[in-house]
Amino acid sequence: MKHIGTILHISPHGKLIVQGNPNFIPKLQTRVCTKDKKIIGSVKDVFGPVKQPYLSITVSNPSKVEELLSSDLFMYTRGKRKRNK
C-alpha cells in the first residue's frame, strides 16, 4: 500500500480534501482506502503546488465520512502503479 496523504477536511460539496504525499501522487480515478484496506472512494482532482499537492477524493459512501474523520486520517492506495512499456 502506498501512503497518498492526510485528510484535512470535507469540502462544501462533500469531497474529502487530502494533503498529498509529494513522493507519490496517484493518477485520477485511483481507488483510495484506509489502513484497514476499506475502499473510501477515488481521486477526483489533484491541485495546488507540485511540492505539496492536494487531492480531492469523491467518497463512495458519504454517510461514513464523519466516522472516517474521527478514526483514520491517513489515506492509501492499494494498487501498484503500472509502468508504460
Helix-residue proportion: under 10%
Strand order of the largest sheet: 3-4-5-2-1-6
**Major sheet description:** 6 strands, antiparallel
CATH superfamily: Probable tRNA pseudouridine synthase domain
- Give the assembly state of these chains: single chain
Order of helices and strands: EEEEEHE
In CATH, the topology is named: Thrombin, subunit H
Total count of domains: 1
Terminal Cα span: 23 Å
Task: List the defining traits of the structure above.
1 helix; single chain; six-stranded antiparallel beta sheet; 85 residues; globular; Thrombin, subunit H; 42% strand; mainly beta
Task: Explain what this protein looks like in three dimensions.
The chain is mainly β and 85 residues long. Strands 3-4-5-2-1-6 form a 6-stranded antiparallel sheet, with no helix packed on it. A hairpin with a 5-residue loop joins strand 3 and strand 4. The relative contact order is 0.32. The chain is 8% helix and 42% strand. The chain contains 1 helix and 6 strands; from the N terminus they run E-E-E-E-E-H-E. The protein has one domain: Thrombin, subunit H (Beta Barrel).
